[in-house]
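Sequence, C-alpha cells reproduced for absentees:
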Amino acid sequence: MPIAVQEQNPIETIKAALTNVSVSEAKGQDTPFDLRSYSHFDATPSIGTEFRAYSPDGKPTLSIRDILGNEQKEKALGRLVSERGVVFFRDAVISPNEQTKLVESLGKLGGKSSTSGLHVHPLTMGGSEFGDEVSMISNKYVFDKTFKRDDFTVIKRKFHANLWHSDITFEPVPSDYATLQIRKLPQVGGDTLWASAYEAYDRLSPVYKSLLEGLTATHVGQGFVDIAKRQGTTLREPRGSPENVGQSLSAVHPVIRTNPVTGWKGLFVNRGFTKRINELTQHESDNLLNFLFEHISANHDLQVRFRWEENSLAIWDNRSTFHSATEDLDDDERVGTRSVSLGERPYLDPKSTSRREALSKARSQ
C-alpha cells in the first residue's frame, strides 16, 4: 500500500508512516484494527500518543472501556504501545483488577511465553489490598507501607537525572508492558516522564551502534535488596516467572535490544539498575555508561512529559522506553496502582532494524 509523503513536514511524514506501518502486516497476519481512526494526538514525534476524552476533530473518541475484553482492539493497543513507547488515556475508568487483566492480555497477544505472568515486586508483602500483582506507587513509601521513605523533603530529594529506569531490568525475565493509574492525585506536580529507547539508539553514530551491539550489561536491584535487609525481611519469590527467583536481584542483558513486536532496536541500559558493561574494564564501563545515561536524561527530544489528571491511564512498553517520576511534592501525596507484565529474556536479533530505518523504508514503498 503506497504511503502519502508530505516532504514539507517531516513530523507529519513520520506520523503518516506510523499510521500505515503494521507489524502484523509485516508478519503476514490479518490487517490489524486501526486505533488511529479515533481522536488522538502524538505528544512528540518520537514517543507518546494520547487518546482524548473529547473530540475536537470530528473523529470518534476511544475509551479504555471500549478496548477491555476485545481481543482485536487489545492486540492493536499493544502494537501501538510498542510503536509509540507509551499511550495515554484520559477519563479512563478502570479498576486495579482490570489493569492486571489488560496488561496480561497485551503481553499474551504480543506473543510472550506461557511461563511469563505478572510481576510480583520483591518488596511487596503478602495479602496486600489489591493482590500480589498490583504494586502501590507512592512518594511516601516503596511499593508497600512497610517500607516507608524519608527522602521526600526538598533537601533530601534525589538528583532527578538518576531516577530514569525501565521496570525490573534486574530480573532475568523483565517486563514487556506496564500500566499505571494515579489514584490519589496531588494538588499539582508528580508528573511522569518517558524517553524512547528507539530514538536513543537512532541518535548514536554508526560506530557507537556497532560497538554497543556486541556488549552485554549486568543489571542489579541493589536498592531493593538493601531495603529488605534493613527491615529484616526477605525478597518475594518467585516473581511472576520461574526464572525470576533469588535474593540477589541480578541479571545480564544485551546493551542493544530488539523489541519482538516491532522488530526495532533500542538502547537497553538505565541508570537505576545497570551497573556494569561486562566486556569492558570497570573504568571503561563507568565512562561509557555515564555517557549513555546522560544521553537518555539530557536529550529532551527523546522524552515526553505527562501531567496526571483524575482517571488518567498510562500504558508503556518497558522494552523500548525509560521513565522517571518527578519528585516535587513535599508533604503532598501521590498514590497509584501499577501492574507489570513479564515478557521474554532480552535479546538482539542481528536482522532487526532501527525505528527510523523502518519508517524510511515504509515511506519509500
